[in-house]
Design a protein that fits this description.
The chain has a domain of 97 residues: Jelly Rolls, CATH 2.60.120.10. 3% of the residues lie in helices and 38% in strands. It has 1 helix and 10 strands; from the N terminus they run E-H-E-E-E-E-E-E-E-E-E. The strands form 3 sheets. A 5-stranded antiparallel sheet has the order 1-2-9-4-7. The protein has a 3-stranded antiparallel sheet with strand order 6-5-8, with no helix packed on it. The longest helix has 4 residues. This is Cupin type-2 domain-containing protein. InterPro entries: Cupin_2 (IPR013096), RmlC-like_jellyroll (IPR014710), RmlC_Cupin_sf (IPR011051).
Length: 146
């Protein structure tokens, strides 16, 4: 029997993954790029996501160090999620079973967990945003796929 009022439902419970997160904002002019990251030919600016999510997620801006090139080493990561969004310039990645792909400003790639890949080359002005889960993860050097 209709009551004439709005239907009220209970919101589903939030999964534990989404609990215990802190509010955070990172402004470009407040951030500092550091060369202490996974790759010497890149600089990294942390966005505060690792701290706000207790390490469940990480996000940073990565930019090329002008004049430095990638050695193109094959590798893989022990993580659950890795997404890259190019904000400036271009970068070429090669993925096992997927071939070489040039990512330009506005390009986005989801790299499945454990996929063998390598950064082949990039423009001197390249910048991208990388989001991972978890924030900290192991990286393994790999042999080139056949």
């Amino acid at each position: 029997m209709a009551t004439g009022g709005p239907l009220q439902t209970k919101a589903p419970a939030m999964p534990k993954l989404w609990k215990n997160q802190a509010f955070t904002i990172a402004h470009a002019d407040d951030g500092k790029f550091e060369g202490q990251g996974l790759r010497a030919f890149f600089e990294y600016r942390q966005l505060g996501i690792a701290e706000a999510t207790q390490g469940k997620f990480g996000a940073h801006v990565i930019r090329a160090v002008p004049g430095m090139e990638s050695p193109g080493a094959w590798h893989s990561h022990d993580l659950d999620f890795q997404m890259v969004y190019v904000t400036k310039g271009w970068v070429v990645f090669e993925y096992e079973g997927q071939g070489e792909h040039i990512l330009r400003e506005g390009s986005c790639v989801l790299q499945p967990p454990g996929i063998l890949h390598r950064e082949c080359r990039h423009s001197d002005d390249m910048e991208l945003i990388e989001i991972t889960s978890p924030a900290e993860f192991a990286t393994q050097a790999e042999e080139a796929p056949e």
